[in-house]
Amino acid sequence: MSTAASLHQSRKRKNGVMMTLCVIAAGIGLAWLALILGALLYKGLAGVNLAVFTEMTPPPGDAGGLLNAIYGSIVMTIIGIVVGTPIGVLAGTYMAEYGRFSKLTTVVRFINDILLSAPSIIIGLFVYELMVRPMGHFSAIAGAVALAILVIPVVVRTTEDMLNLVPNALREAGTAIGAPRWVVIRSVAYRAALSGIVTGILLAIARISGETAPLLFTALNNQFWSSNLNAPMASLPVTIFQFALSPYEEWQQLAWTGALIITLTVLGLSIFARSLTGRREDR
Amino acid sequence: MSAVQEALPAIRGSRDATVRRFALTDSIFHGLTRAAAILVLVLLGGVAISLIAGAWPALSTFGLSFVTTESWNPVTEKFGALAPIYGTIITSAIAILIAVPLGIGIAIFLTELCPRPLRRPIGMAVELLAGIPSIIYGIWGLFVLAPFLQTTIQPFIISVFHGIPGLNSLFAGPPYGIGLLTSAMILAIMILPFITSITKDVFDTVPSVLKESAYGIGCTTWEVTRRVVIPYTRIGIMGGVMLALGRALGETMAVTFVIGNAHRISTSLFAPATTISATIANEFTEAVGDLYTSSLVALGLILFIITFLILAIARYMLMRIDARTGA
Fold first, then answer.
1. What is the pLDDT at residue B116?
2. What's the pTM?
3. By CA distance, what is B224's nearest residue in A?
Protein backbone atom coordinates (compact mmCIF):
# COMPACT_ATOMS: atom_id res chain seq x y z
CA MET A 1 0.00 0.00 0.00
CA SER A 2 2.73 2.41 0.96
CA THR A 3 4.73 1.53 -2.19
CA ALA A 4 1.69 2.28 -4.35
CA ALA A 5 1.26 5.59 -2.59
CA SER A 6 4.92 6.49 -2.99
CA LEU A 7 4.81 5.48 -6.66
CA HIS A 8 1.84 7.76 -7.08
CA GLN A 9 3.77 10.53 -5.33
CA SER A 10 6.84 10.10 -7.50
CA ARG A 11 4.75 10.04 -10.69
CA LYS A 12 3.02 13.24 -9.65
CA ARG A 13 6.34 14.81 -8.75
CA LYS A 14 7.85 13.84 -12.10
CA ASN A 15 4.83 15.29 -13.86
CA GLY A 16 5.16 18.51 -11.91
CA VAL A 17 8.86 18.83 -12.74
CA MET A 18 8.39 18.20 -16.47
CA MET A 19 5.43 20.55 -16.75
CA THR A 20 7.34 23.27 -14.90
CA LEU A 21 10.19 22.81 -17.38
CA CYS A 22 7.71 23.28 -20.26
CA VAL A 23 6.42 26.52 -18.73
CA ILE A 24 10.02 27.69 -18.29
CA ALA A 25 10.72 26.85 -21.95
CA ALA A 26 7.77 28.98 -23.05
CA GLY A 27 8.97 31.75 -20.75
CA ILE A 28 12.43 31.65 -22.29
CA GLY A 29 10.97 31.82 -25.81
CA LEU A 30 8.83 34.83 -24.99
CA ALA A 31 11.59 36.52 -23.01
CA TRP A 32 13.91 36.19 -25.99
CA LEU A 33 11.39 37.85 -28.27
CA ALA A 34 10.95 40.63 -25.73
CA LEU A 35 14.74 41.06 -25.37
CA ILE A 36 15.28 41.36 -29.11
CA LEU A 37 12.38 43.74 -29.71
CA GLY A 38 13.32 45.74 -26.59
CA ALA A 39 16.94 46.21 -27.67
CA LEU A 40 15.78 47.09 -31.16
CA LEU A 41 13.31 49.72 -29.94
CA TYR A 42 15.77 51.13 -27.39
CA LYS A 43 18.70 51.46 -29.79
CA GLY A 44 16.68 52.14 -32.95
CA LEU A 45 14.36 54.84 -31.64
CA ALA A 46 17.35 56.87 -30.44
CA GLY A 47 18.27 57.55 -34.05
CA VAL A 48 14.85 58.16 -35.56
CA ASN A 49 14.56 61.66 -36.99
CA LEU A 50 13.49 63.31 -40.20
CA ALA A 51 17.00 63.14 -41.68
CA VAL A 52 16.78 59.32 -41.77
CA PHE A 53 14.07 59.59 -44.41
CA THR A 54 15.32 62.64 -46.30
CA GLU A 55 19.12 62.31 -46.54
CA MET A 56 21.49 59.96 -48.30
CA THR A 57 23.76 57.47 -46.55
CA PRO A 58 26.67 59.50 -45.18
CA PRO A 59 30.42 59.00 -45.59
CA PRO A 60 32.14 57.68 -42.43
CA GLY A 61 31.97 60.04 -39.49
CA ASP A 62 29.20 62.22 -40.91
CA ALA A 63 25.51 62.53 -40.12
CA GLY A 64 23.04 61.44 -42.74
CA GLY A 65 20.05 59.29 -43.51
CA LEU A 66 18.97 56.15 -45.26
CA LEU A 67 16.90 57.61 -48.11
CA ASN A 68 18.73 55.92 -50.98
CA ALA A 69 18.75 52.59 -49.15
CA ILE A 70 15.02 52.76 -48.38
CA TYR A 71 14.31 53.74 -51.98
CA GLY A 72 16.46 50.88 -53.32
CA SER A 73 14.77 48.36 -51.06
CA ILE A 74 11.31 49.49 -52.15
CA VAL A 75 12.20 49.45 -55.85
CA MET A 76 13.80 45.99 -55.79
CA THR A 77 11.03 44.57 -53.61
CA ILE A 78 8.35 45.88 -56.00
CA ILE A 79 10.12 44.49 -59.09
CA GLY A 80 10.70 41.17 -57.30
CA ILE A 81 7.01 40.92 -56.39
CA VAL A 82 5.82 42.02 -59.85
CA VAL A 83 8.02 39.41 -61.54
CA GLY A 84 7.61 36.60 -59.03
CA THR A 85 3.90 36.79 -58.18
CA PRO A 86 2.39 35.97 -61.62
CA ILE A 87 4.72 33.00 -62.05
CA GLY A 88 3.92 31.76 -58.55
CA VAL A 89 0.16 32.20 -58.91
CA LEU A 90 0.13 30.47 -62.33
CA ALA A 91 2.21 27.53 -61.07
CA GLY A 92 -0.02 27.23 -57.99
CA THR A 93 -3.06 27.33 -60.26
CA TYR A 94 -1.72 24.45 -62.33
CA MET A 95 -1.08 22.38 -59.22
CA ALA A 96 -4.53 22.97 -57.71
CA GLU A 97 -6.68 23.12 -60.86
CA TYR A 98 -5.44 21.58 -64.12
CA GLY A 99 -2.94 19.14 -62.72
CA ARG A 100 -4.28 18.40 -59.26
CA PHE A 101 -3.73 14.65 -59.64
CA SER A 102 -0.83 14.65 -62.11
CA LYS A 103 2.64 13.36 -61.37
CA LEU A 104 4.13 16.73 -62.34
CA THR A 105 2.29 18.36 -59.45
CA THR A 106 3.74 15.94 -56.90
CA VAL A 107 7.25 16.60 -58.18
CA VAL A 108 6.79 20.37 -58.37
CA ARG A 109 5.35 20.44 -54.83
CA PHE A 110 8.37 18.57 -53.49
CA ILE A 111 10.89 20.77 -55.33
CA ASN A 112 8.98 23.92 -54.39
CA ASP A 113 9.08 23.00 -50.70
CA ILE A 114 12.84 22.59 -50.99
CA LEU A 115 13.21 25.94 -52.76
CA LEU A 116 11.10 27.45 -49.98
CA SER A 117 13.70 26.65 -47.36
CA ALA A 118 16.83 26.67 -49.51
CA PRO A 119 19.56 29.01 -48.21
CA SER A 120 19.03 32.41 -49.82
CA ILE A 121 22.75 32.91 -50.30
CA ILE A 122 22.66 30.03 -52.80
CA ILE A 123 20.06 31.98 -54.81
CA GLY A 124 22.44 34.94 -54.70
CA LEU A 125 25.25 32.79 -56.13
CA PHE A 126 22.89 31.47 -58.82
CA VAL A 127 21.86 34.97 -59.95
CA TYR A 128 25.51 36.05 -59.85
CA GLU A 129 26.41 33.24 -62.27
CA LEU A 130 23.24 33.85 -64.32
CA MET A 131 23.25 37.65 -64.67
CA VAL A 132 26.12 39.48 -62.98
CA ARG A 133 28.94 37.49 -64.57
CA PRO A 134 27.57 37.68 -68.17
CA MET A 135 26.68 41.39 -67.79
CA GLY A 136 30.06 42.13 -66.26
CA HIS A 137 28.78 44.34 -63.44
CA PHE A 138 26.48 44.35 -60.41
CA SER A 139 23.00 45.74 -60.98
CA ALA A 140 19.72 46.46 -59.24
CA ILE A 141 17.88 44.31 -61.76
CA ALA A 142 19.97 41.26 -60.77
CA GLY A 143 19.05 41.93 -57.14
CA ALA A 144 15.37 42.15 -58.07
CA VAL A 145 15.57 38.84 -59.97
CA ALA A 146 17.16 37.17 -56.93
CA LEU A 147 14.28 38.46 -54.79
CA ALA A 148 11.73 37.28 -57.39
CA ILE A 149 13.19 33.76 -57.16
CA LEU A 150 12.57 33.90 -53.39
CA VAL A 151 9.00 35.12 -53.94
CA ILE A 152 7.96 32.29 -56.27
CA PRO A 153 7.98 29.34 -53.81
CA VAL A 154 6.08 31.30 -51.13
CA VAL A 155 3.35 32.32 -53.57
CA VAL A 156 3.17 28.87 -55.19
CA ARG A 157 2.66 27.24 -51.80
CA THR A 158 -0.10 29.57 -50.56
CA THR A 159 -1.89 29.74 -53.92
CA GLU A 160 -2.07 25.95 -54.17
CA ASP A 161 -3.20 25.56 -50.55
CA MET A 162 -5.87 28.25 -50.86
CA LEU A 163 -7.25 26.99 -54.20
CA ASN A 164 -7.46 23.49 -52.72
CA LEU A 165 -9.73 24.89 -50.01
CA VAL A 166 -12.27 26.19 -52.57
CA PRO A 167 -15.23 23.76 -52.54
CA ASN A 168 -15.62 21.78 -55.75
CA ALA A 169 -19.39 22.50 -55.84
CA LEU A 170 -18.53 26.11 -56.73
CA ARG A 171 -16.45 24.98 -59.72
CA GLU A 172 -19.13 22.50 -60.80
CA ALA A 173 -21.78 25.24 -60.68
CA GLY A 174 -19.63 27.37 -62.94
CA THR A 175 -19.05 24.53 -65.37
CA ALA A 176 -22.76 23.64 -65.37
CA ILE A 177 -23.74 27.02 -66.79
CA GLY A 178 -21.29 26.46 -69.62
CA ALA A 179 -18.29 28.47 -68.53
CA PRO A 180 -14.98 27.12 -69.81
CA ARG A 181 -12.46 26.03 -67.26
CA TRP A 182 -10.25 29.09 -67.29
CA VAL A 183 -13.29 31.34 -66.76
CA VAL A 184 -14.30 29.17 -63.79
CA ILE A 185 -10.79 29.46 -62.38
CA ARG A 186 -10.63 33.20 -62.95
CA SER A 187 -14.06 34.30 -61.80
CA VAL A 188 -14.93 31.56 -59.30
CA ALA A 189 -11.83 29.93 -57.82
CA TYR A 190 -9.59 33.03 -57.72
CA ARG A 191 -12.39 35.11 -56.26
CA ALA A 192 -13.10 32.57 -53.53
CA ALA A 193 -9.42 32.20 -52.66
CA LEU A 194 -8.50 35.87 -53.05
CA SER A 195 -7.78 36.71 -49.41
CA GLY A 196 -5.56 33.63 -49.07
CA ILE A 197 -3.60 34.44 -52.20
CA VAL A 198 -3.15 38.05 -51.04
CA THR A 199 -1.87 36.70 -47.70
CA GLY A 200 0.74 34.68 -49.58
CA ILE A 201 1.89 37.76 -51.48
CA LEU A 202 2.11 39.80 -48.26
CA LEU A 203 4.15 37.06 -46.59
CA ALA A 204 6.42 37.03 -49.63
CA ILE A 205 6.91 40.81 -49.33
CA ALA A 206 7.68 40.36 -45.63
CA ARG A 207 10.21 37.67 -46.47
CA ILE A 208 12.14 39.52 -49.18
CA SER A 209 12.13 42.96 -47.56
CA GLY A 210 14.55 41.68 -44.92
CA GLU A 211 16.69 39.49 -47.17
CA THR A 212 20.35 40.44 -47.24
CA ALA A 213 22.32 37.46 -48.49
CA PRO A 214 20.92 37.33 -52.06
CA LEU A 215 21.56 41.07 -52.56
CA LEU A 216 25.19 41.06 -51.38
CA PHE A 217 26.63 40.11 -54.73
CA THR A 218 23.79 40.96 -57.10
CA ALA A 219 22.72 44.53 -56.33
CA LEU A 220 25.83 45.15 -54.19
CA ASN A 221 25.49 48.56 -52.52
CA ASN A 222 25.65 52.21 -53.46
CA GLN A 223 26.70 55.14 -51.34
CA PHE A 224 24.74 57.58 -53.50
CA TRP A 225 21.28 58.12 -54.93
CA SER A 226 20.72 55.91 -57.95
CA SER A 227 17.56 55.06 -59.82
CA ASN A 228 19.44 53.29 -62.61
CA LEU A 229 18.33 49.65 -62.62
CA ASN A 230 21.44 48.70 -64.56
CA ALA A 231 23.79 49.93 -61.84
CA PRO A 232 24.50 48.83 -58.26
CA MET A 233 21.77 49.97 -55.89
CA ALA A 234 21.71 50.45 -52.14
CA SER A 235 19.25 48.47 -50.06
CA LEU A 236 18.31 48.70 -46.43
CA PRO A 237 19.55 45.22 -45.35
CA VAL A 238 22.91 45.45 -47.13
CA THR A 239 23.42 48.97 -45.76
CA ILE A 240 22.67 47.71 -42.25
CA PHE A 241 25.18 44.89 -42.75
CA GLN A 242 27.90 47.29 -43.89
CA PHE A 243 27.18 49.97 -41.26
CA ALA A 244 26.79 47.61 -38.30
CA LEU A 245 30.20 46.04 -38.90
CA SER A 246 31.89 49.43 -39.28
CA PRO A 247 33.77 51.11 -36.41
CA TYR A 248 31.92 54.45 -36.86
CA GLU A 249 29.29 55.36 -34.30
CA GLU A 250 27.07 57.30 -36.72
CA TRP A 251 26.96 54.32 -39.06
CA GLN A 252 26.16 51.90 -36.24
CA GLN A 253 23.32 54.16 -35.09
CA LEU A 254 21.92 54.26 -38.63
CA ALA A 255 22.17 50.46 -38.77
CA TRP A 256 20.03 50.14 -35.63
CA THR A 257 17.50 52.63 -36.97
CA GLY A 258 17.37 50.77 -40.30
CA ALA A 259 16.95 47.47 -38.45
CA LEU A 260 14.02 48.96 -36.52
CA ILE A 261 12.39 50.16 -39.77
CA ILE A 262 12.75 46.71 -41.38
CA THR A 263 11.49 44.83 -38.33
CA LEU A 264 8.43 47.05 -37.93
CA THR A 265 7.65 46.68 -41.65
CA VAL A 266 8.03 42.91 -41.58
CA LEU A 267 6.10 42.41 -38.33
CA GLY A 268 3.34 44.75 -39.55
CA LEU A 269 3.06 42.87 -42.85
CA SER A 270 2.96 39.43 -41.21
CA ILE A 271 0.39 40.47 -38.58
CA PHE A 272 -1.78 42.02 -41.31
CA ALA A 273 -1.40 38.91 -43.49
CA ARG A 274 -2.34 36.63 -40.59
CA SER A 275 -5.39 38.73 -39.73
CA LEU A 276 -6.61 38.24 -43.32
CA THR A 277 -6.60 34.46 -43.06
CA GLY A 278 -7.32 34.37 -39.32
CA ARG A 279 -10.82 35.61 -40.01
CA ARG A 280 -11.32 32.76 -42.46
CA GLU A 281 -10.38 30.13 -39.88
CA ASP A 282 -12.71 31.53 -37.25
CA ARG A 283 -15.68 31.38 -39.57
CA MET B 1 -40.70 28.00 -88.42
CA SER B 2 -38.94 28.51 -91.67
CA ALA B 3 -37.26 31.63 -90.37
CA VAL B 4 -35.86 29.64 -87.47
CA GLN B 5 -34.64 26.92 -89.83
CA GLU B 6 -32.93 29.54 -91.95
CA ALA B 7 -31.22 31.03 -88.92
CA LEU B 8 -30.08 27.68 -87.49
CA PRO B 9 -26.83 27.26 -89.47
CA ALA B 10 -25.78 30.79 -88.52
CA ILE B 11 -26.53 30.13 -84.86
CA ARG B 12 -24.75 26.79 -84.99
CA GLY B 13 -21.83 28.46 -86.73
CA SER B 14 -21.47 31.17 -84.11
CA ARG B 15 -21.89 28.55 -81.37
CA ASP B 16 -19.10 26.45 -82.88
CA ALA B 17 -16.93 29.53 -83.11
CA THR B 18 -17.57 30.34 -79.45
CA VAL B 19 -16.78 26.81 -78.37
CA ARG B 20 -13.62 26.87 -80.44
CA ARG B 21 -12.64 30.20 -78.91
CA PHE B 22 -13.29 28.82 -75.43
CA ALA B 23 -11.22 25.74 -76.15
CA LEU B 24 -8.38 27.84 -77.53
CA THR B 25 -8.21 30.30 -74.62
CA ASP B 26 -8.53 27.44 -72.19
CA SER B 27 -5.65 25.53 -73.72
CA ILE B 28 -3.55 28.73 -73.73
CA PHE B 29 -4.26 29.24 -70.02
CA HIS B 30 -3.61 25.56 -69.31
CA GLY B 31 -0.28 25.78 -71.14
CA LEU B 32 0.64 28.97 -69.30
CA THR B 33 0.04 27.51 -65.85
CA ARG B 34 1.84 24.31 -66.80
CA ALA B 35 4.83 26.30 -68.05
CA ALA B 36 4.95 28.20 -64.75
CA ALA B 37 4.89 24.94 -62.81
CA ILE B 38 7.71 23.54 -64.95
CA LEU B 39 9.65 26.79 -64.42
CA VAL B 40 9.84 25.94 -60.71
CA LEU B 41 11.63 22.70 -61.64
CA VAL B 42 13.85 24.56 -64.11
CA LEU B 43 14.83 27.02 -61.36
CA LEU B 44 16.15 24.31 -59.07
CA GLY B 45 17.86 22.59 -62.00
CA GLY B 46 19.37 25.92 -63.03
CA VAL B 47 20.69 26.52 -59.53
CA ALA B 48 22.37 23.10 -59.52
CA ILE B 49 23.86 23.46 -63.01
CA SER B 50 25.15 27.01 -62.51
CA LEU B 51 26.77 26.06 -59.20
CA ILE B 52 28.46 23.01 -60.69
CA ALA B 53 29.66 25.07 -63.67
CA GLY B 54 30.94 27.83 -61.41
CA ALA B 55 32.62 25.42 -59.02
CA TRP B 56 34.26 23.34 -61.73
CA PRO B 57 37.62 25.20 -61.95
CA ALA B 58 38.17 24.82 -58.20
CA LEU B 59 36.98 21.21 -58.04
CA SER B 60 39.13 20.13 -60.98
CA THR B 61 42.19 21.89 -59.52
CA PHE B 62 41.93 20.60 -55.97
CA GLY B 63 39.91 17.43 -56.45
CA LEU B 64 38.91 15.62 -53.30
CA SER B 65 41.50 17.51 -51.24
CA PHE B 66 39.17 20.53 -51.40
CA VAL B 67 36.99 19.01 -48.70
CA THR B 68 39.81 17.46 -46.66
CA THR B 69 42.28 20.33 -46.27
CA GLU B 70 42.05 23.18 -43.80
CA SER B 71 44.21 25.82 -45.45
CA TRP B 72 42.44 28.77 -47.06
CA ASN B 73 45.06 31.02 -48.54
CA PRO B 74 44.08 33.55 -51.22
CA VAL B 75 47.72 34.62 -51.68
CA THR B 76 49.06 31.20 -52.64
CA GLU B 77 45.64 30.22 -54.09
CA LYS B 78 45.42 27.08 -51.97
CA PHE B 79 41.86 26.50 -50.90
CA GLY B 80 40.37 23.83 -48.63
CA ALA B 81 36.84 23.77 -47.30
CA LEU B 82 37.35 21.75 -44.12
CA ALA B 83 37.23 24.69 -41.69
CA PRO B 84 33.97 26.19 -43.02
CA ILE B 85 32.37 22.73 -43.21
CA TYR B 86 33.44 22.02 -39.61
CA GLY B 87 32.09 25.39 -38.44
CA THR B 88 28.80 24.89 -40.24
CA ILE B 89 28.21 21.44 -38.78
CA ILE B 90 29.28 22.31 -35.21
CA THR B 91 27.20 25.51 -34.98
CA SER B 92 24.12 23.80 -36.43
CA ALA B 93 24.51 20.75 -34.18
CA ILE B 94 24.77 22.85 -31.00
CA ALA B 95 21.84 25.00 -32.16
CA ILE B 96 19.73 21.87 -32.60
CA LEU B 97 20.77 20.59 -29.15
CA ILE B 98 19.59 23.85 -27.57
CA ALA B 99 16.48 24.46 -29.67
CA VAL B 100 14.90 20.99 -29.84
CA PRO B 101 14.19 20.53 -26.09
CA LEU B 102 13.07 24.15 -25.81
CA GLY B 103 10.84 23.92 -28.88
CA ILE B 104 9.21 20.66 -27.80
CA GLY B 105 8.71 22.12 -24.31
CA ILE B 106 6.96 25.17 -25.71
CA ALA B 107 4.80 22.95 -27.95
CA ILE B 108 3.77 20.84 -24.93
CA PHE B 109 3.03 24.04 -23.02
CA LEU B 110 0.89 25.36 -25.87
CA THR B 111 -1.09 22.16 -26.45
CA GLU B 112 -1.51 20.87 -22.88
CA LEU B 113 -0.94 23.57 -20.25
CA CYS B 114 -1.62 27.00 -21.64
CA PRO B 115 -4.97 28.61 -20.75
CA ARG B 116 -7.10 28.58 -23.90
CA PRO B 117 -7.42 32.36 -24.42
CA LEU B 118 -3.61 32.72 -24.32
CA ARG B 119 -2.87 29.95 -26.85
CA ARG B 120 -3.36 31.96 -30.01
CA PRO B 121 -1.45 35.09 -28.89
CA ILE B 122 1.51 33.10 -27.54
CA GLY B 123 1.57 30.80 -30.56
CA MET B 124 1.52 33.85 -32.80
CA ALA B 125 4.31 35.57 -30.84
CA VAL B 126 6.54 32.52 -31.25
CA GLU B 127 5.76 32.43 -34.97
CA LEU B 128 6.55 36.14 -35.26
CA LEU B 129 10.07 35.27 -34.10
CA ALA B 130 10.32 33.28 -37.33
CA GLY B 131 9.41 36.31 -39.42
CA ILE B 132 12.14 38.58 -38.07
CA PRO B 133 14.83 38.93 -40.77
CA SER B 134 18.08 37.19 -39.96
CA ILE B 135 20.08 40.42 -40.14
CA ILE B 136 18.18 41.65 -37.07
CA TYR B 137 19.33 38.59 -35.11
CA GLY B 138 22.82 39.29 -36.38
CA ILE B 139 22.96 42.92 -35.24
CA TRP B 140 21.40 41.93 -31.90
CA GLY B 141 23.89 39.13 -31.47
CA LEU B 142 26.85 41.39 -32.26
CA PHE B 143 25.90 44.38 -30.10
CA VAL B 144 23.89 42.80 -27.26
CA LEU B 145 24.51 39.06 -26.88
CA ALA B 146 28.24 38.92 -27.66
CA PRO B 147 29.33 41.69 -25.22
CA PHE B 148 27.13 40.11 -22.55
CA LEU B 149 28.70 36.68 -23.08
CA GLN B 150 32.18 38.18 -23.23
CA THR B 151 31.95 40.07 -19.96
CA THR B 152 29.91 37.68 -17.82
CA ILE B 153 29.23 34.11 -18.96
CA GLN B 154 32.42 33.21 -20.81
CA PRO B 155 34.99 34.29 -18.15
CA PHE B 156 32.91 32.40 -15.58
CA ILE B 157 32.78 29.19 -17.64
CA ILE B 158 36.48 29.42 -18.49
CA SER B 159 37.42 29.77 -14.81
CA VAL B 160 35.09 26.93 -13.75
CA PHE B 161 36.38 24.41 -16.30
CA HIS B 162 39.97 25.64 -16.10
CA GLY B 163 41.35 22.65 -14.20
CA ILE B 164 39.24 19.90 -15.75
CA PRO B 165 41.01 18.00 -18.54
CA GLY B 166 38.98 17.76 -21.78
CA LEU B 167 36.49 20.41 -20.84
CA ASN B 168 39.21 23.04 -20.43
CA SER B 169 40.13 22.75 -24.10
CA LEU B 170 36.46 22.83 -25.10
CA PHE B 171 35.99 26.10 -23.21
CA ALA B 172 39.43 27.64 -23.64
CA GLY B 173 39.86 31.40 -23.55
CA PRO B 174 40.31 34.23 -24.19
CA PRO B 175 36.64 35.29 -24.15
CA TYR B 176 36.10 37.06 -27.48
CA GLY B 177 32.33 37.13 -27.17
CA ILE B 178 32.00 36.14 -30.81
CA GLY B 179 32.69 32.59 -31.99
CA LEU B 180 31.20 29.14 -32.41
CA LEU B 181 29.04 29.10 -29.27
CA THR B 182 27.60 32.60 -29.80
CA SER B 183 26.69 31.71 -33.39
CA ALA B 184 25.08 28.49 -32.24
CA MET B 185 23.00 30.40 -29.67
CA ILE B 186 21.78 32.89 -32.28
CA LEU B 187 20.95 30.00 -34.62
CA ALA B 188 19.05 28.28 -31.81
CA ILE B 189 16.88 31.37 -31.31
CA MET B 190 16.23 31.52 -35.04
CA ILE B 191 15.16 27.89 -35.53
CA LEU B 192 13.16 27.69 -32.29
CA PRO B 193 9.95 29.01 -33.91
CA PHE B 194 10.16 26.44 -36.72
CA ILE B 195 10.53 23.53 -34.33
CA THR B 196 7.80 24.87 -32.06
CA SER B 197 5.19 25.50 -34.73
CA ILE B 198 5.75 22.20 -36.56
CA THR B 199 5.77 20.21 -33.28
CA LYS B 200 2.57 21.97 -32.20
CA ASP B 201 0.96 21.18 -35.56
CA VAL B 202 1.83 17.47 -35.39
CA PHE B 203 0.77 17.29 -31.72
CA ASP B 204 -2.65 18.53 -32.87
CA THR B 205 -2.92 15.55 -35.23
CA VAL B 206 -3.01 13.05 -32.33
CA PRO B 207 -6.59 11.70 -32.07
CA SER B 208 -8.25 12.84 -28.82
CA VAL B 209 -9.44 9.26 -28.22
CA LEU B 210 -5.84 8.09 -27.80
CA LYS B 211 -5.03 10.79 -25.27
CA GLU B 212 -8.33 10.40 -23.44
CA SER B 213 -7.91 6.65 -23.05
CA ALA B 214 -4.47 7.21 -21.53
CA TYR B 215 -5.87 9.81 -19.16
CA GLY B 216 -8.71 7.38 -18.44
CA ILE B 217 -6.39 4.76 -17.01
CA GLY B 218 -4.83 7.40 -14.75
CA CYS B 219 -1.80 8.68 -16.64
CA THR B 220 -0.37 12.07 -15.76
CA THR B 221 -0.02 14.79 -18.40
CA TRP B 222 3.70 14.05 -18.74
CA GLU B 223 3.08 10.31 -19.15
CA VAL B 224 0.45 10.96 -21.83
CA THR B 225 2.87 13.25 -23.65
CA ARG B 226 5.86 10.94 -23.28
CA ARG B 227 4.14 7.58 -23.96
CA VAL B 228 1.33 8.52 -26.36
CA VAL B 229 1.76 11.89 -28.05
CA ILE B 230 5.50 11.81 -28.77
CA PRO B 231 5.61 8.20 -30.05
CA TYR B 232 2.59 8.90 -32.28
CA THR B 233 4.17 12.05 -33.76
CA ARG B 234 7.81 10.92 -33.83
CA ILE B 235 8.18 11.14 -37.62
CA GLY B 236 6.60 14.59 -37.75
CA ILE B 237 8.86 15.92 -35.00
CA MET B 238 11.90 14.46 -36.79
CA GLY B 239 10.73 16.16 -39.99
CA GLY B 240 10.43 19.48 -38.18
CA VAL B 241 13.89 19.08 -36.66
CA MET B 242 15.41 18.27 -40.05
CA LEU B 243 13.68 21.31 -41.56
CA ALA B 244 15.13 23.47 -38.80
CA LEU B 245 18.54 21.85 -39.36
CA GLY B 246 18.32 22.79 -43.03
CA ARG B 247 17.64 26.38 -42.02
CA ALA B 248 20.49 26.43 -39.52
CA LEU B 249 23.01 25.01 -42.00
CA GLY B 250 22.21 27.64 -44.62
CA GLU B 251 21.66 30.62 -42.35
CA THR B 252 23.95 33.40 -43.47
CA MET B 253 23.62 36.90 -42.13
CA ALA B 254 23.06 36.25 -38.42
CA VAL B 255 26.09 33.94 -38.31
CA THR B 256 28.28 36.25 -40.39
CA PHE B 257 27.96 38.92 -37.69
CA VAL B 258 29.03 36.79 -34.74
CA ILE B 259 31.19 33.91 -36.02
CA GLY B 260 34.45 35.87 -36.22
CA ASN B 261 35.50 34.70 -39.70
CA ALA B 262 38.62 32.76 -38.88
CA HIS B 263 39.59 29.93 -41.24
CA ARG B 264 40.84 27.49 -38.66
CA ILE B 265 39.55 24.53 -36.73
CA SER B 266 39.76 25.06 -33.00
CA THR B 267 38.70 22.74 -30.23
CA SER B 268 37.42 25.67 -28.16
CA LEU B 269 33.79 26.65 -28.59
CA PHE B 270 34.74 30.22 -27.66
CA ALA B 271 37.18 30.57 -30.55
CA PRO B 272 36.30 32.53 -33.70
CA ALA B 273 35.58 30.23 -36.63
CA THR B 274 33.73 30.39 -39.93
CA THR B 275 30.87 28.68 -41.72
CA ILE B 276 30.26 28.03 -45.41
CA SER B 277 27.67 30.76 -45.80
CA ALA B 278 29.58 33.30 -43.72
CA THR B 279 32.70 32.71 -45.82
CA ILE B 280 30.77 33.30 -49.05
CA ALA B 281 29.03 36.41 -47.68
CA ASN B 282 32.27 37.92 -46.42
CA GLU B 283 34.66 37.15 -49.21
CA PHE B 284 32.72 36.84 -52.47
CA THR B 285 32.70 40.49 -53.55
CA GLU B 286 36.34 40.88 -52.56
CA ALA B 287 37.57 37.70 -54.20
CA VAL B 288 40.16 38.39 -56.87
CA GLY B 289 41.12 35.71 -59.36
CA ASP B 290 38.98 33.03 -60.93
CA LEU B 291 40.22 30.25 -58.67
CA TYR B 292 39.25 32.18 -55.51
CA THR B 293 35.75 32.95 -56.83
CA SER B 294 35.35 29.40 -58.05
CA SER B 295 36.38 28.01 -54.66
CA LEU B 296 33.68 30.12 -53.01
CA VAL B 297 31.09 28.86 -55.50
CA ALA B 298 32.30 25.33 -54.73
CA LEU B 299 31.59 26.03 -51.05
CA GLY B 300 28.10 27.11 -52.13
CA LEU B 301 27.70 23.85 -54.05
CA ILE B 302 28.65 21.81 -50.96
CA LEU B 303 26.12 23.78 -48.88
CA PHE B 304 23.49 23.28 -51.59
CA ILE B 305 24.02 19.51 -51.65
CA ILE B 306 23.95 19.19 -47.83
CA THR B 307 20.81 21.30 -47.38
CA PHE B 308 19.08 19.66 -50.36
CA LEU B 309 19.55 16.21 -48.81
CA ILE B 310 18.48 17.37 -45.32
CA LEU B 311 15.40 19.20 -46.64
CA ALA B 312 14.43 16.30 -48.89
CA ILE B 313 14.52 13.93 -45.89
CA ALA B 314 12.52 16.46 -43.84
CA ARG B 315 9.84 16.82 -46.49
CA TYR B 316 9.63 13.08 -46.94
CA MET B 317 9.03 12.60 -43.21
CA LEU B 318 6.43 15.38 -43.05
CA MET B 319 4.69 13.96 -46.13
CA ARG B 320 4.40 10.61 -44.37
CA ILE B 321 2.62 12.11 -41.38
CA ASP B 322 0.38 14.12 -43.72
CA ALA B 323 -0.55 10.95 -45.61
CA ARG B 324 -1.44 9.20 -42.34
CA THR B 325 -3.79 11.93 -41.16
CA GLY B 326 -5.22 12.28 -44.65
CA ALA B 327 -4.63 16.01 -44.59
1. 84
2. 0.89
3. A15
